[in-house]
Design brief:
With 511 residues, the protein is α+β, with helices and mostly antiparallel strands. The protein contains ten helices and 22 strands. It has a single domain, classed as FAD/NAD(P)-binding domain (3-Layer(bba) Sandwich), CATH 3.50.50. The longest helix has 19 residues.
Length: 511
């Protein structure tokens, strides 16, 4: 049985980042990843393979609504879901850390505030090479520094859209993007501004993901060992239950056990909850660190919609994901509650929209639709609900979720449609279901968070403010699980920033 100073479970936005933070510590670190390195292959950019055949998604079948099958839109790779994310890396707004009244209920206050995360947001943006421009987003929180890289420019049709939005009194801004792009010197640019970025793996490794930016550089250190195809089965404690002693790991088909002084669980909000629940013992009969009965509860994933807006104007844009709108994040004059966030998606092709068009639509019509379409993504905050939960029943993952807080989000969708129609009265709209795979909308779990929230009260939270389990001295959970509320922007940058913050805490206590 091998012993390590630190064991990290998972290599996504949380696990990969905290590995990067700890790699220089000199501590002996074992990293366990249930997947493998994603293959660098032509299929990375193949719509049929990526979206329709779900080449990079797990073949697991979960359960929902009692015994109904759920095919989750998630994958197990070194780098986790950052391998296929759109690399939109936004900060939560300052007010997102406060208690907020929504039309559908209350969004919970965080035990820490934006000021506690701000320096780590800055560090995260540098680590993930985020391009952006401060001062354009009317809801932009305080920033101690400008973005580390210049904003990704709009192509002509999107610049025209930007200008039209401004004429309507809207304040569009550049999406903060984590891409390895050098627009001033194309020869030195890894990113080629292709149309297969958002939702696709990057064949050129030009997207800033946890694998390329964090894990691979860290494995060059002699004190770091990475094991792939290593699925964690359970954590084992001492008799009193206040310390993890070992972890049981299935490597391919062989069961192994490793010990460590510190354990960091970063398997994603759903699977981290599963590991904790599967680790029940005499000291933790309801699941590891589950004295509060909150493990697996309060699952959030955002209210989301992908939409294709078809205009009378052609849209030859290749790299489309450059513009976002937050004017209605906190509501407007007619509706005093939060609505949410709007951003562009990557550009759709004919194969992508064929599933959403009427069955009899001929191919040349689909082609015309694509050449005139602009693709949108809208996100609204869903509220923490203890009945929205992850559980394990007879060895199967069950994910129960009932939508909430929809009024503001539906107003946001309607708001965007009306604005676009004023800009071009010929606009028509289609849902873009391809981004949700099966079981719309639950299968889209890319924004999963909230299943082991942090807080000061051990009766209502799972983790303390340093993301250490209240009941266990050497267990930390560092992924989206710790969120008390979801906000309405992509959670990746907050997960990354928090991993850097917890990493600093661990470095301070290990000295």
């Amino acid at each position: 049985m091998s012993h390590y100073d630190i064991i990290i479970i998972g290599t996504g936005a949380g696990g990969g980042t905290i590995l990067h933070k700890l790699k220089d510590s000199g501590k002996k670190i074992l990293v366990l990843e249930r997947g493998t390195f994603m293959p660098q292959e032509k299929e990375n950019w193949d719509t049929e393979e990526v979206f329709r055949k779900e080449r990079y998604h797990t073949k697991e079948v979960w359960k929902t609504n009692g015994d109904e099958d759920l095919h989750p839109g998630t994958g197990y790779w070194v780098g986790g879901n950052t391998k296929v994310y759109g690399a939109a890396l936004l900060r939560l707004r300052e007010k997102d850390f406060e208690e907020i009244q929504h039309a559908g209920g209350i969004s919970r206050e965080w035990p820490l505030k934006y000021k506690d995360f701000e320096p780590y947001y800055t560090e995260a943006e540098k680590l993930f090479q985020v391009h952006g421009k401060m001062g354009l987003d009317p809801t932009d929180p305080y920033r101690s520094e400008e973005y580390p890289y210049k904003e990704v420019s709009h192509e002509p049709r999107i610049q025209e859209l930007h200008d039209d939005l401004v004429k309507e009194g809207v304040n569009p801004f550049y999406i903060p993007l984590g891409v390895k792009l050098n627009e001033s010197d194309a020869i030195k640019s890894a990113c080629i501004r292709c149309n297969t970025c958002d939702g696709f793996p990057c064949l050129l490794h030009a997207k800033s993901d946890a694998d390329i930016n964090c894990v691979r550089p860290s494995t060059a250190f002699e004190n770091v060992t990475l094991l792939t195809n290593a699925k964690v089965i359970r954590l084992n404690t001492n008799v009193s239950g206040n310390e993890i002693l070992s972890v049981d790991v299935e490597i391919v088909t062989e069961l192994n056990q490793f010990t460590a002084d510190i354990f960091i669980l970063s398997a994603g909000a759903i699977n981290s909850a599963v590991v904790l629940l599967n680790s029940a013992n005499d000291a933790h009969p309801n699941g590891m660190a589950n004295k509060s009965s909150q493990v697996g509860r309060n699952f959030m994933k955002h209210n989301s919609m992908a939409m294709i807006g078809i205009s009378t104007k052609p849209n030859p844009t290749v790299f489309q994901k450059t513009l976002a709108i937050n004017d209605y994040y906190w509501g407007d004059e007619e509706f005093k509650f939060p609505m949410g966030h709007i951003q562009l998606l990557g550009k759709s092709n004919k194969e992508m929209i064929s599933a959403d068009a009427p069955f009899i639509t001929p191919g040349f019509v689909l082609g015309e639709m694509v050449t005139h379409s602009i693709d949108w993504w809208m996100t609204g905050e869903d509220l923490a609900d203890p009945d929205n939960r992850v559980s394990v029943i007879d060895g199967k993952i069950h994910l129960e979720y009932k939508e909430n807080n929809l009024e503001g989000f539906e107003r946001l969708v309607d708001k965007l449609k009306k604005i676009l129609y004023r800009i071009d009265s010929g606009y028509s709209f289609l849902p873009h279901s391809l981004y949700f795979t099966k079981n719309i909308p639950l299968a889209a779990v890319g924004h999963q968070c909230g299943t082991a929230r942090f807080g000061n009260n051990e009766n209502t939270s799972v983790l303390d403010i340093n993301c250490k389990a209240h009941e266990i001295n050497n267990l930390y959970v560092v992924d989206g699980s710790f969120f008390p509320s979801s906000g309405a922007v992509n959670p990746s940058l907050t997960i990354i920033a928090n991993a850097l913050r917890v990493g600093d805490h661990l470095l301070s206590i290990m000295k």
